[in-house]
User: What shape does this take?
Amino acid sequence: MTTRPASPATGSRPPSAAPAAAGPPEPPSAGTDRLPRGVAHMLVPAAAGLFGGRAPVRVRAWDGSEAGPEDAVTVVLRDRAALRRVLARPDELGLARAYVSGEIDVEGDLTDALARVFADLRDRGPFRPRPAALARAAHTALVLGAVGAPPPPPAAEARLSGRRHSRRRDADAVSHHYDAGNELYRMLLDPSMAYSCAYWSDACVRTLDQAQNAKLDLVCRKLALRPGARLLDLGCGWGSLALHAAEHHGARVTALTLSAEQAGYVRARVAERGLHELVEVREDHYRDFDGEGFDAVAVIEMGEHVGRREYRAFAGRLRALLAPHGRLLVQQMSRRGRRPGGGPFIETYIAPDMHMRPVGRTVERLERAGLEVRDVHALREHYVRTARAWAAELERRWDEVAALMGAETARVWRLYLAGGALAFEEGRMGVDQILAVRRDPAGRGGAKAPLDGAAAGGAERVR
Assistant: This one.
């Protein structure tokens, strides 16, 4: 498995390199500069009372003090503003805001640090703090000047308005993440600009570029693309599949996106490669698209943005887009538990209005729409390697990304990729390729080529 090397760049950075967005530390509140002990020596015992007698992290505070278990992950508190954020929003969003603002850092590899903290808390089981522990924590917060209005949220947060999954709001949600700038994605992704789970098919596939190419070829094989076949790439991203299908399989592709940045980029790539006769780029919402009769439809990690209530109609639309015997390939993330949107951080910073469900429910939606599901190919472990490869590239080019996008956006991406890799690694999220076929009006199923899992590509073990 490809992993990121642990280094200061993946977590804590020297105080002099702290992001400018965090601003200079506030002056100590009245009396805190005369504390008999350091800030960390007050915080750690208070935290221990809230977590069953042992603090889950070691703390290095803004005054230079350090305390906590020697074997625990070290959290660097650069500013008491972080405490105000967490008190105002005592969940992952409060911590995320403090991290994105540069008020908190974590030493070492961020994915590994999060895994260690989560594992420690799981091992302890549920714990309810006693009233005395809560009172001590409140007193500590008051003494340290952590009680007060939190700073404004980071500018990197999404701020959408309007009815959820209306056309305008869907466009705004897509723009928030995908219109961040083509140059950012060029720095992080492989040369094909594939922004979805790669396919580490065998031991010969060692690089992200090779794995993404293997994924694109797998999708085209499952869809049985041939010269002249009509393919709809629904949510085409930066055109990796559209270009691959046209160049290597001779397919006639319609590439659909809501992102103006993506549409412009794909059109430029089509022109550069002389594929204008095979690839048409449309900037449109799937509900307004008027095409039909496609031999194949690909939906690569776009279905998560459709919405819970809208997915039934979406599945029906997919069937209507296909010709009889036409094939559908949906590559889609799934989620277990109570956070179908991925959690407060993802919903606020990355993919607002996202909705994921267990893969079985997606299969059910497709079948109820009149599609015959023929294969489900789990790729969860492949996303661990993909996310870590993106994260490694982010760390390698950290200074470039921060200079281009700003420190806040760079830190959003660091936290996003670290948390995403961990969610897939621990099985809280999955990703699957679902292959389906539209039966003909007479009810006869089948297609002109085998649709069993082995012929489609199988589910190889991740190495």
About this structure: The chain has a mean pLDDT of 86. The chain is about 40% helix and 15% strand. Residues 407-425 form the longest helix (19 residues).
